[in-house]
Amino acid sequence: MLKKRLMSAVAMLLIFSVIVLTACGESAPGSSKEGKGTGQGNPASGKKYKIATVVKLTGVAWFDRMEEGVKEFGQTTGHETFMQGPQKADAALQVQIIEDLIAQKVDAITVVPFSAEALEPVLKKARDKGIVVITHEADGMANTDFNIEAFDNLEYGAFLMDNLAKAMGETGEYMTTVGSLTTKSHMQWEEGAYKRQLEKYPNMKAVARQLETSDDQKIASEKLRETLKAYPNLKGFQGASGNDAAGAALAVEESGLIGKIHVVGTSVPSVSQKYLESGAMSMIGFWDPAEAAKAMNTLAVKVLEGKSGEIKDGYNLGVPGYEKLKVVDGKYLYGSAWVGVTKDNVKDYDF
Predict the structure, then answer these.
(1) 153-286: what fold?
(2) Which residues form the signal peptide (predicted)?
């Protein structure tokens, strides 16, 4: 009799343990593991993906900052994330890197193209192999699952022009530079700026437009010096590449033209602070490359998890500046992440 009672007690304990363990394994009502319409979070499936980010070039402050975002995303989510890029801005070198990543069978490639057109064939190859492709600064790119921009590029260009016009007193001759004529975002910023000038600032005149710098600070400096020789009354400079404005500001300083030539462009505070404080540069516009990296990687995971359909107008990607996306033609995404910085607020940023 005692033996039967013991066996019954053991059986009851086993049943109770199973019930408790099952209950613990379930989510409480209303406590989803992934917030609706947001978030980078750990993959619900528990699967870890290998995601490569390919940039225009390495060893410059802009992409150093982007790499911080790539690494932070991996640390936060558990995915294997890393960044690669050529040591100089060269589309052929980017193609070679992507070919190598295809051979490695990575799950996704996020890329900032130096030349969108040059990368179309290799990115098509990647997608044909089942690799997810996310692009940035490549508005209108065909062979991508999503292209994400920090903002509407034409509006950003107009914003830069408004600041250049303010510095120039809305009058005088100016020039513009781009990293490459095949870098779509740079061309759109320049186009947006030029259109704004024609519409709003009739007393300003573009004497040299879309001069290529290959994302090189030294070349940007040389372009300003050359243009100044041809147009000695030059009064303004707007640069698209992350190195253009700094190169122009250096030329302004060395030529003793602070206060006479006004420089604006896209840059980061760590590069431009000294020029803003000296007066050689009037303002910079930018978005945080680290947050852009997180946005790209978050999108890659969404696609890999079969959740592309969630990406609609107003979608919150869970990344600062990308909380309310604008979606055009299904796969072209726009955030609202630009920042304007002058000598008055440059110390508010630590990158």
Answers:
(1) Rossmann fold (3.40.50)
(2) 1-23
Is the model's pLDDT at 124 over the cut of 80? yes
Distance, CA of 241 to CA of 246 (rounded, Å): 10
Residue 12 CB neighbours (<10 A): 10
CB 149 within 8 A of CB 296: no
350, amino acid identity:
D
Which residue intervals of 181-243 are DSSP H helices?
184-200, 217-230
Residues 235 and 205: beta-carbon distance below 8 Å: no
Question: Within 13 Å and on the Cβ side, how many CA atoms surround 166?
Answer: 11
The CATH H-level (homologous superfamily) assignment of domain 50-151+289-336 is Response regulator (3.40.50.2300)
- Asked if 300 and 49 touch (Cβ cutoff 8 Å), the reply is yes
Bridging pattern class, strands 326-328 and 332-334 = antiparallel
pTM for this model (two decimals)? 0.82
pLDDT of residue 46: 76
Kindly state the tokens that stand for 146: 């999503």
